[in-house]
Design goal:
Length: 188
């Protein structure tokens, strides 16, 4: 949740979590959200869980860096070739997120059944200053994630992080077949 809120707030790096943490109102709301809807017994058990008084409302940047590193597979990086588009295969942790996403999509379809799935796939250039980033076709360093949106459900069904030199249509059929064209996601 902290990473989603950081993105919505316009954060440019994980270190910007410090800015969110420094906002007393935001921190207070985050602590309330954590226990909202829990029965009194569970809420008190959660409050007693901390030996010292808990001060953080969001994880520290160093903890988030360690969390994000778990989704990176350095073995896949060895397959990169200079000047060629490359999308690393997802590791076990990324695959598990895809499974959770599939369950959420099935739940959305169960609660709001749709007979049609109009899927919009689009890549977006995101300019960056990171040293290891690659140049996009417009001539600046960027990343170019591709997102697949299901219009009738008003939901993103898939998002894939890509280097800036990866063209928008690169392996688009693979993404469609895995996350949009398969009967595993949708029951009509």
């Amino acid at each position: 949740m902290a990473l989603v809120l950081l993105n919505l707030a316009g954060g440019e790096s994980v270190d910007d979590l410090r800015i969110l943490e420094g906002d007393e109102g935001f921190a207070k709301v985050m602590r309330r959200v954590e226990t909202h809807g829990l029965p009194r017994r569970e809420r008190r058990a959660l409050e007693k869980r901390w030996r010292k008084q808990r001060r953080r409302a969001v994880p520290s940047p160093s903890h988030v860096f360690r969390y994000l590193a778990a989704f990176h597979d350095s073995k896949e990086e060895t397959k990169r070739q200079p000047g060629k588009a490359f999308i690393p295969k997802p590791n076990k942790k990324l695959h598990n997120i895809q499974i959770v996403n599939t369950v959420l999509l099935a739940f959305a379809q169960l609660k709001n059944p749709q007979r049609t799935a109009t899927l919009d796939m689009d890549a977006t250039l995101v300019e960056t200053q990171k040293r290891q980033s690659l140049f996009c076709y417009k001539g600046y360093k960027s990343y170019q994630p591709i997102n697949t949106y299901w219009f009738e459900q008003n939901i993103v069904v898939h998002s894939e992080f890509r280097d800036g030199n990866v063209p928008a249509g690169y392996e688009q059929l693979r993404v469609f077949q895995a996350f949009g064209g398969g009967k595993s996601l949708f029951t009509f």
